[in-house]
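Severity: low
Component: inverse-folding endpoint
Summary: output formatting inconsistent between runs
Steps to reproduce: submit the following structure tokens with default settings.
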């Protein structure tokens, strides 16, 4: 049906954005059969490291003392400081309230125990089904770390993700801390040598191949510091050159780079202690131009890098830009970078991922993003319609399907190998 006005366009965009199912391509969630490493419920929501960082701005509690509190006590402290004593208007604070509302619990009381009762009545499986239904997410990709003892044992015990959950092989300790990881690999009988030689290459490749056969990952991922350089005569540079690139190409899976995190600038805050820095784009430019048969999924953490990343994607079809990552996942920036991406890349990118660490966050991260997407898409279609171009409801449905899942799955299946 040809859309005749901006109001028609807005209605068509809103309906399509609400209806289209989403593949959430980067989360820290797990299939329920992976056990208690899948985090969910109100106390986990309140002790999300984003909220811990915000809590610490209002209290002088010793960090050690906070971490020694029980999860419930930590949650009560966060609730009191950020929701009772003052208005919860930050993105992560508002996210808790949006989540409660969408899950059918109007957040109209400041009594935390009222909310706890609701979550206590559910099982993890029920909550996964409810969250995916409410968020309209029908596939989600996990972050699977073979160096995490608990998770490693789940895989070695033969657990496989339930349908709709997919693996991603995460290799930060291999690329960012090889000096210490060498010993770990040897303890798992991968006989890497002290110096980087053919044996080391063979054994690191064997390690990657073994975990690809265990996990069947959709991609291989790493987070990288602002100082990331490539090529580089370093452990990281050599492992990427000699192992990651050949193995991901052989298996036709993307290498996902998440660039710009300065880890633990305040170590006492744990996961809340990471910072951001602008990265030099030449590393990515070199990777892309030297490896046209490899596929790269990339997101960056610095606002200043977003424009360069979008322009770089115009130069290299083996680069798929994704998400508004972490400190980018705030309405003011999501709005800016999504508009910029449409203006530079049309719909050839993946607009968002939830990065959810706690199951119910999928709900708010997508709810908040969809509200922005509706506004931006309505404007973009109206700009085009105003030239006399015909916009049909089916055009919008086609574009939103690309943005919400087809771009990702097409990229995964894309084969650039000659
Ligand atoms: O490295 C990553 O995958 C990041 O997303 C970190 O996990 C970070 O702590 C985070 O949760 N950001 O949203
Ligand atoms: Zn993440």
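Observed output (run 2 of 3):
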């Amino acid at each position: 049906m040809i859309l005749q006005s901006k109001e028609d366009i807005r209605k068509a965009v809103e309906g399509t954005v609400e209806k289209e199912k989403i593949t959430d391509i980067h989360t820290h969630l797990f299939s329920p059969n992976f056990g208690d490493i899948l985090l969910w419920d109100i106390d986990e929501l309140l002790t999300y490291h984003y909220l811990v960082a915000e809590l610490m701005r209002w209290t002088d509690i010793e960090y050690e003392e906070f971490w020694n509190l029980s999860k419930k006590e930590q949650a009560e402290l966060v609730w009191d400081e950020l929701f009772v004593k003052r208005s919860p208007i930050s993105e992560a604070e508002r996210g808790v309230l949006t989540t409660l509302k969408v899950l059918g619990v109007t957040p109209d009381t400041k009594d935390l125990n009222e909310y706890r009762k609701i979550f206590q009545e559910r099982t993890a499986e029920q909550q996964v089904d409810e969250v995916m239904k409410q968020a309209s997410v029908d596939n989600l990709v996990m972050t699977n770390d073979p160096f995490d003892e608990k998770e490693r044992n789940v895989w070695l015990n033969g657990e496989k993700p339930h349908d709709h959950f997919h693996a991603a092989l995460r290799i930060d300790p291999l690329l960012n801390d090889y000096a210490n990881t060498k010993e770990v690999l040897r303890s798992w009988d991968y006989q890497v040598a002290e110096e980087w030689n053919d044996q080391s290459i063979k054994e690191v490749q064997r390690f990657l191949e073994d975990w690809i056969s265990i996990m069947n990952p959709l991609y291989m991922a790493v987070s990288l510091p602002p100082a990331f350089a490539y090529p580089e005569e370093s452990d990281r540079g050599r492992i990427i050159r000699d192992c990651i690139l050949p193995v991901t190409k052989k298996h036709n899976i993307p290498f996902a780079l998440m660039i710009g995190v300065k880890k633990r600038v305040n170590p006492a805050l744990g996961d809340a202690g990471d910072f951001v820095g602008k990265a030099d784009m030449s590393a990515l430019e070199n990777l892309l131009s030297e490896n046209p048969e490899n596929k790269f999924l990339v997101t960056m953490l610095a606002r200043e890098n977003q424009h360069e990343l979008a322009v770089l994607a115009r130069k290299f079809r083996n680069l798929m830009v994704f998400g508004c990552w972490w400190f980018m996942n705030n309405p003011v920036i999501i709005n800016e970078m999504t508009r910029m991406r449409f203006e530079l890349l049309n719909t050839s990118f993946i607009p968002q991922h939830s990065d959810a660490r706690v199951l119910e966050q999928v709900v708010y991260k997508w709810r908040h993003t969809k509200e922005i997407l509706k506004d931006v898409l309505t404007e973009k279609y109206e700009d085009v319609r105003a030239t006399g171009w015909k916009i049909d409801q089916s055009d919008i449905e086609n574009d939103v399907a690309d943005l919400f899942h087809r771009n990702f799955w097409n990229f995964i299946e894309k084969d650039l190998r000659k």
